[in-house]
Amino acid sequence: MSAKTNRSFSTSSSSLINGTEPRIKIISIGSSGVGKSCVIKRYCEGRFVSKYIPTIGIDYGVKRVSLRAPAHMSPAPPNFFVRVNF
């Protein structure tokens, strides 16, 4: 995990403590014609695109998701960090 990713995740965890909504970005990468845009439409808009329409450039979707933390989780910042071992 790069330093940039760690800083971004750290910012998100502090925003949780401050009461603002964190943003999580997910990137879909793959060969053409495999359904990347279709998955985005299905998840974000709840619809299925049966006709193949080539995407030129980028396609994106936005979806608001509410998550409830388990009662045993502390909102302290150390609980939100991720460690990657190589």
From TrEMBL:
GO molecular function: GTP binding; GTPase activity
The organism of origin for this protein: Trypanosoma cruzi
Domain of life: Eukaryota
The protein, known as: Tcrab27
InterPro entries on file: P-loop_NTPase, Small_GTPase
